[in-house]
Amino acid sequence: MNGWYHSWRAAIRIARRDAWRSKGRSFLVLAMIALPILGVSAADLTLRSAELSTEQSLERSLGAADARFTDPGMGGVPLMQTPDANSSTPVGDFENKPYPEGRTDVSKVLPANAKSLTDALGSGKLRTAHGLLNTEIRELKASDPMAKGIMVVDQGRLPQKADEVAATTHFLQTSGLKVGSKLAARGLDREYKIVGAYELPDTLDTDQVNALPGAFLVPLDKALEKAGLPVTEASTTHLVSIPGGFTWNMVKEANAKGVTVNSRAVALDPPAKSDVPIYQQEGWGQYEESTAAKAAALAAVGTVVGLAMLEICLLAGPAFAVGARRSRRQLGLVGANGGDRRHIRAIVLSGGLVIGAAAAVVGTVLGLLLTFALQPLLEDYMGARFGSFDIRPLELLGIGLLAVFTGLMAAIVPAITSSRQSVLASLTGRRGVRKSSRGLTVVGLIAVALGATTALYGSVMTDQFIIVAGGSAVAELGVVALTPALVGLFGRTGRILPLSPRLALRDAVRNRGRTAPAVAAVLAAVAGTVAVATYAASDDAQGRSTYEASLPHGAVSVTLDEAGGRDVPAVRATVQKMLPIDLRADVDRISVGKTNCSMYGGGEGCGRYEVVVPEANQCPLWKTDPAHPDEDPSSKFSKAERRKLAEDWRCKELSGGSSVDGGVLVGDAKVLKVLAIDDAAAEKALAAGQIVSFDKRNVDAKGKIGIRLITDPKKADEAADKGKEAPGEIKTFTAHQVSGEPNSYGVAMILPPAAAKSAGVNTVPFGAYYSTDKMPSSEQRQRLDGELDKTGSDVNLHVEEGYTSENNIILLALTVFAGLITIGAAGIATGLAQADAEADLKTLAAVGAPPRVRRTLSGFQCGVVAAMGVVLGSAAGVLPAIGLRLTERRDQMKWYQEALDQGYGSLDSVPHVPIIVPWETLAALLIAVPVGAALLAALVTRSRGALSRREAT
Q: Would the pLDDT of 461 be above 80?
């Protein structure tokens, strides 16, 4: 035991001295190991700091209160809730009766001895330095001790008077206002003074202003209602404080009166699952991730970490081999003085131990310092403040040990290789040709065969991505194990090469101990890049083939569904002014009820409309039987019948999506021109006041289209549940059905304004469609977005640019990453080759070789390593991508067959899952990267070296 301790102590001292002497090499290896440790430790610290304890979370949501009472809008009926109050459901069965709706007076539910504080929240358009901004408006007496912790004052103070407000820091930054500025809301003829800035620790990017209760929302709602504009739709909760806290039994008592409660006491001491009534209901429960899912996630993380460690080891291994090669005389002296192989292995392994430990310390410390320095930026990025700067020593220790382990693994192969050299060879500097290990080759072949078979099975016989990914990883590891043998095969091509590349290839083959790890490192990086690039290119091709345009290429649409179209004329004019518009087609929409109602209703006095499909044109798969309204209409057909009906014209939907309810636009012939529909008969029909239809299902046998105006949506929903027609007046229009099947981009019909007016159908401005002279530029889009933001309206702007790939930047980044890894690994191998080939270079100089040969040889040495790694990596990387795409194809075809059986699919929707090879990325990797590596190595190599006597070998 004592001898083991002293031998390792001496080995570590020797390794520390060698690391200090070779600062450049040591720094390179330290950086390769420390950078991932820095990232992982910083990520661990960030995630742990962002995690909130229960107390911290309660402080941000409840302040110092004991509970928050909320009206869930169920009309006061008894209900059940989860302990965290995030979910609730009424008590009883509401399958065959209306779901409870309505408000509850929360103040009547509060305990008699409780103190309460109202917290109201709505939204409105506030005037800013740039225009209008849709902002949360809150009314909470935040200065009350009960609300302490909900808002953190950053500047100034909280409001104390009715004409004062405080605003979030994000709102002030967005609006261009500051503390001391005046603030007004659209529709309200009074101003408020901003007296302070605060932040919400959980949502830093929220635009919000806070006033005293009753000071802002009530007067604003009155003004908006008077002006016919949408109100703030404020909701009010109650912060409650009660001696002894609010227990789970008290929560259930409040639930019986139709109110949900978020209780501090319950959160700190949750009830047993058996004591929570909602968890006893069917379909409810505490859902947790399955064991299989956890195992799959752990396996995925382990695979990624393992491959990352392998990459580092392959990159750092040659650097340790450089040190061992340069220290071979020293290692030989150890052997000559009685040291055996284990002592030599210990010295080389100690180099990995020393640098790994240094990398662990440096990476962890830098991770801590970086996280601390970037804490404000990290919090802004995540949109929430840290709970605390949470350092977990055991987790950081584990991350550091990972660095030490990586250093040791990187030094294993050089240690074994050095220990196998004879003392005489080490002292004289002789070196021979080592053949690749047959055992390693056999293991590599078995791994490749096993991994490829597993991946093929996963892609053809199952739909499990984890099987494909696991098999591909095993196959790639097998190729890595085969690298020494494959390098030997590459050497057979040397006879056809000129002098310099032939010498470079011969040197690479003779010294596989340094060549193979570098080639394997390049192989691993390139294989990952090619796999992701192949998958991304294939996904792009699939996206391009399935893309459905919303408008003709270059066309523009703008719609606005609020305030009864009040701001639409200004928005139309803004778009026409800012973009290169050729033709503008204004469109309106049908409005039922109040003019300020949204398109889909939902408010008091708001209705909706629906297109009446003639019974003969209704799809049998969707037609509800009034006698059995709860049955699935398609269940009475066999699979074969459903497949046949899926091809029936009555069961086919229009392609494209419409921005208007039912696809009914109110407009003129200009809409046809923007949609690129050249139909003189349709233009003539619109001019004659006829409705133009693109969906023949809506036209009855008499050539008419009916539109039902529903003034009571509640009764309409009840009728639909019973399979009956909704009550409402039906307006009938003479229709012109467009011949053929032109692409109407989701528009089902165009109703002329004159026809709507003569039929007594109310319409409101909705937006406009535009054709353009040329595709709007990015600068024009940005300026337009800025102008539309000033309106404060929820404007839907669409410029049809066709399919745009989101993977181009990913492919570029992967190519650059693979190139950097390739150049780095090849550069390390070249540095080692130059140290080993000094004797050959001296011989070349002695026989009269020109000085440029030295530079050329160095370049080819680097290029040969890069080329071998890129070629092998490109071949290895295609396998997992193909496997994953085949798995996706099986999965989508399975879904498609099920859709056909249910009658939802058609022959026009057969999944298209192509496999595309990214030739541009492969060309950059196969040609540009090796050539660039060779040129870079040649440029940084000196042309002349000192001429001296060649050492005997």
A: no
